[in-house]
Amino acid sequence: MKRLRDTYFSFNERGFRNEVMPFTTGTPWDTVYRYASWTIVPEVMPFQRACEDSLLAAARPVPLPPDFFEKPLPVRVAFFFSEVLRHHLPVTILEGDLIAGGQFNTALSLCLSKREARIRSRKAESFRSAAVDVSGLGIGNCGAVPGHLIPDYPKVLRMGFRGIVEEIRREQTTEPDMARRATLESFAIACSAAHALAGRYADEAERQAVDATPERAAELRQLAAICRKVPWEPAATFHEALQSLWLTHMLVLACESYPGAGVSFGRIDQYLFPFYARDMEEGRMTHGQARELLQCFFIKPNYAYDYQGRMGRNQGINSSFGQLITLAGCGPQGEDRANELTYVFLDVMEAMNMLEPKPNVRLHAKSPERLLTRVCDLLARAQGAPFLLNFDETSMRGLKAQGLPESDLWDYAPVGCLENTRQGDDRSGTVDVNLNLAKAVELTLFQGRDQASGRQLGPRTQDPRNMKSWPEFEKAFRAQLSSCLNKLVDLTNQADTLRATYAPTPYLSTLVGGCIEKRLDITAGGARYNYITVEGIALATAADSLSAVKRLVFEEGRVTMDALLRAIQRNYEGDEFLRQTLLNKAPKYGNDDPEGDRMARDLTHWWSEETATLKTPVTGKRYRAGYLSWNYGIAYAPLTAATPDGRKRGVFLANGVAAVTGMDKAGPTAAARAVGSLGFEAIPNGASHTITLPPSLARDEEHRRKLAGFLRGYCVEGGSALQINMIDAETLLEAQRRPDEFSHLLIRVTGYNAYFVDLGREIQNEIIARERAHSAEAPKP
Questions:
Q1: Closest by alpha carbon to 297, among 346, 229, 356?
Q2: 746-748 and 753-755: which strand pairing?
Q3: Beta-strand pair 21-24/106-108
Q4: What is the DSSP letter of 389?
Q5: pTM (predicted TM-score)
Q6: Could you tell me if 76 and 68 are in contact, meaning their C-beta atoms sit under 8 angstroms apart?
Q7: Digit-coded pLDDT (tens) for 273-330
C-alpha cells in the first residue's frame, strides 16, 4: 500500500499517468471540448478557446465505418465510446494493485455531422460570450455541468451489465418509434463496451502473471478472473463488488469527458455491506484483506487530478472533483444504519489521508455514541477537516419540500461537495447556476448600474435617495435580485438545450433510473427526477448589508443614504468612522440575533421561492435553490462594489451560509442556530456551513464528549451540512513559509477538502483569515 500511495504522489517519476486523452473522428469540423462544462469556473474562461484548439490538435483519430455519420447521434456517440474502450484506452495494472483500472481522463469527440457541428458551434459561442460577460460583471456564472449525480451502482452489482442489456433489448421489442429505438440501441452498445474494457484488463493481468513472483502471479490470476466476470455479470464477493464498482464509476468519468466532478458513490457502506458480511462469515476474507482492498480502491479516484499535470507539489490544485462517499445515516423508520463496514471505511480514510474519495458521514437523532465518538476522535486527530457531516432530519425536510416522494427520502445522499440528491435516478444540476446575492445590493443602491463598468445591468429602480421607508428599498432590491437570477437562468436554459441536443451520454444513461423506461438520454431529461440548482453566493454579506440599510438608514437615521452612497463609491476611503458604524452598530447574521438572522431568512425565501417557479424550455427541468459558494467569494470580491455592511471592494464575500468572517462573535452554538433559522424547506439542495473550532476543544475525552454534544444539538438546531476546521492560523502560516514540510496538510475549504499548500494564494489567505477570526477559544457549546 505504501508503494501504491507513493506512486500516486510521484507524478514526475511514475510512468503510469492519467493525463487527458483526446479522441477525434478525424473530421475537419470535429470538436472534443465543451464550453458549457467549464463556465462555472471563472478562472478557466479566458483559456477556453485555447483548450478547444489544443485538445483537438492533440487528439488521436479513431477509425470509423463509412456510414458512421448516417447513424442517429446517440448511436454515433455510443459506437465511438465503444471503439475507444475496445482499442484505444490504455490498460495498465500497477505493481501490487488489487483493483484494475486507472486511465479514464478523456476528451471524446462530440461525433457531430458537419451541419450539426456548424449550428452547435454558433450557439455554443453565443452562450460562452454571454457567460463570460455576466461572470466578468460579478453577477454569477452558469453552465451545463457534467457529473454531480449518483449513478445506480447497486443495479450493476445486482444485475451486471449483461442484465441491463437484456432489459434494454426487452424494451426495444415494444418500442415502435425509430428514434427511441435508436436511443435504446445506443444504451446497449455502451454497456457492452464496459465488458470489452474489463476483458482487456483481464488480458493484461494474465500477461503480467507470466513473469511475476508466485504470490503476485496468484493475485493477478485472481484479478483476471474477476475482470472476466464483472461488471458484465453480477458481483458475488467483496473483491468483485469493489472491482465492478470502480470500473463502472471510472467509465462515467470517461463518457462525459470530464475528470469526475461530483460523480459520487452514494451510500457505499450500505450496498457493499452484504458482500463484506458474507465474505467475512464464510471465511473468504480477513479484516486485513478487506482493508487492503479498500485502500487500493481509495487511491483510484485521486487519479482524476492527473489531468492537471505536475502543477504543484500534489495533484489536486483546486480539489474540486468531489467523488463523495456517504457513510451511516438513518433507515426508513429513523433507525440507525451504521454497520461494521462504516467503521472500516473511517479507518481506511484516516490511514490514507488523500483527497478522494471525499467522505460524508450522515448523522441523525439516533446516531449511536460509537459513531459520534469515532467522528470526534477523527476531528481531534486530523490536520484539517477530514469529512463532511450531513444531518438527516434537515436534509430530508428540504427534499420533501422540493416535492420528492417521502417514502424513500431516508435513502438520499449528497454529491460533489454536499448537494443533496436521490440515489440512482436524479440529475439535479447541483452547481449549474451560481448567483451573487451581494451584486443585487450594489445594483439596488445605484438603480441597476454597475459601479466598475458603468453599464446598466438591472432595471432602473427608484433612486434610493428618494426612498422614505425600508419597504421601498426592499422592493427595489427584490427587483434587482430577480433580474440577476433571470439573466443566469436564461443563459442556463441555452446551455441545457445545447447539451440536450448535441451531447448525449448513452453509457451514463444506462445507470440512471428513468432513462431506459422513457427511452430518453439523461442529457435530454431522461432521469426520473430532473432539476437544476441555483446556488446562492454571499448570503451573509448581502443579509448584513440589507440589515445595515434597514436599521441605520431607515429606522434610526444614524446614516443618511447620500452619505452611504458616497462612501461606497469611494470604497470607504476617508469614511472610516462611517464604515465602523456599519460594522458595529447594525445587526449581524450568525450571532443568534433575531433581527440579523431574520433578514438572512427573508433573503433566502425571496430568491429561492422565485427559483422554484422556473423551468427549462426543452428538458422541462425545474430549478431549485441551495447554498454552495465554492470559491466564488474570492473570485467575485473585486467585481462587487463595497457593501453597506462595511466591506470594501475586493474583500472576500461571505462563504456558504457562514457568517461574514469575524462577525460571528457569539460562538458555534449561535452560528448553528442562525443557520437553522434559514428555513431549509426553501433550499433543498443543502447548504455549506464551514466553521472553525480551536484544537483545544477536542484536546481530551471530556472535550470530545462536549463536541459530540454540539453535533447532536446541530441535528436539532442547525443546517444540513457542517464542515469543521480544527486547526490554528499559525500552522497554516508555517505551511505557507515551508510548503515542502506541509505537503500533505489537508484543509476544509467550502464543501471540499484540499491540500493547503497547493491552493492558490488568495484562497490560502482567505482560509487563514477565517482561522484568525476564531483564534480565541470559542465559548463552550
A1: 356
A2: antiparallel
A3: parallel
A4: E
A5: 0.94
A6: yes
A7: 999 999 999 999 999 999 999 999 999 999 998 877 654 444 434 556 789 999 999 9
